# Entry
Amino acid sequence: MTKEVRVRFAPSPTGALHIGGLRTALYNYLFAKKMGGKFILRIEDTDQTRFVPGAEEYIQESLDWLGISPDESPWKPGSVAPYRQSERKASYMQYALELVEKGHAYYAFDTAEELEAMRERLTAARVLQPQYNSITRSQMKNSLTLSGAELKERLASGDPYVIRAKLPLKEEVRLHDLIRGWVMVHSSTLDDKVLMKSDGMPTYHLANIVDDHLMGITHVIRGEEWLPSAPLHVLLYRFFGWEDTMPQFAHLPLLLKPDGNGKLSKRDGDKLGFPVFPLNWVDPFSGEKSSGFRENGYLQEALLNFLAFLGWNPGDEREIFSLEELVEAFSIERIGKSGTKFDIAKAKWLNEHYLRSSSQVQLISYLQKDADAAGVAIAQEKAAAIVALLRERVTFPADFWRDSQFLHQAPSDFDPEVATKKWNGDAATLLQAYAQTLESGLPAPFDAASAKALLESTAEANGIKLGKVMQAARLAVTGLGAGLDLMEVFAILGPQEVAKRIRFALDTLAIVD
RNA sequence: GGUCCGUUCGUCUAGGGGUUAGGACGUAUCCCUUUCACGGAUAAAACACGGGUUCGAUUCCCGUACGGACUACCA
# Structure
């Protein structure tokens, strides 16, 4: 039997969870469930200067909303707790020290100014990549260049220092990526990355390797932006002697801007008018607001389906997948290699699909909720009729209310273009007669069929062709030139309201024949 | 600049040495219809370029171009 699959999603609580991060979380979840393994959430808050209050809760709420809650997390600790790196702080130093002892890391005392001076010197000497590496470290202030006595003294006096990885000068580092195959990088292009910062916190690189090891992570599924540092991570596993349990890597293609160039960013959403975050978010420091898919009316099933297909496909022609179906169909092998442009039109289409397959009761509740908020009471029967008429033509839940405005309130003005083109003497004559009939009281129930029959007979009695005046009738009653089946609208409004609206139109609209 | 990754219709993609290069979104047209949608049908639309390898390359290899990521005591 093989080892249980354990994957982790490891965001930093530095703000709202980006939609790309959410997709990474989804793929981790899908893989874990597919393999019968565990999906773990670890908060990577080693940069105290970037911590943003509320960001953790935002992450949690986003995952919960999508239905991909982690099996283990800070809020649901498993056997490898804690799940917040700030709470694991105490354990990292011993690992860094272990590397120092093994000769794979060293203390460095260089100040920010000295580092800057080094880079300037190197740049002046036309060194292409000024970096702290196997060559330049010999000229810097570190435990490799300082005398044993001075090192002891600096350490004892509490001089601030970092611990850097000591990378080999010449070594081909190979790593196998589940999505990209073998990736080869020469160690001479890597620099001596900082492992422990002077504030006593580890950097991503150290914390990540140590925690993945300690938490029994079997597969690291993360964004492509980590690919360049993956060779360093492989080296660290080797330094620790953990190579035989090193997780497998899968670097996901990035989500790109819809118009082509670059990684999708927060600004794109603002600019193009669609969200790039799952939920609304207000930055606690700047007060800046970002809108979310959820509040924009996207259904969680739709966002899930949309996200899953950004870089993955099942290999056949199915497009509509529930979370369970995604789990069933998912495989890392079918994740694409190239960056994916974010196309909101597809998300809208999916949303329409899921909205239409929602229950009548659910859709009515959307309408009623918005009506309540606007202080309008809609009889349940009327709401049901509205939803039935609208369900094939909405994209978002809020459309039920928005697109049924004219059913709740008589038009105060009329589409001028339609009025000019369609309003004529015949229409006025017919509607005048129709309104009169409606006002005189009707024997039969007033439904779409009887409303139509009555309109037809009225037209016939006046020698008017119905087709010529339907648009005018629509204009008179709704103020608009297009929309729902007019007779159904009449039925919902009822005879008295229809007559009243016709009277108003007759009084308001000028006849231009 | 350097390192690494990538490149099939506008977009998401299937495919893979011999195919009419398939699907979906979007777009257009037609049908349905009192309008608009829905639905149905149809159409336009792609293998970045140049060399190899091969009987044959969109598919394999190498270059070029283009795009992207990374290049912090951020993750």
Observations:
- The radius of gyration of chain A is 33 Å.
- Chain A has five domains: 6-75+212-255, 89-204, 270-356, 359-400, 410-508.
- The domain at 89-204 of chain A is CATH 3.90.800.10 (Glutamyl-tRNA Synthetase; domain 3).
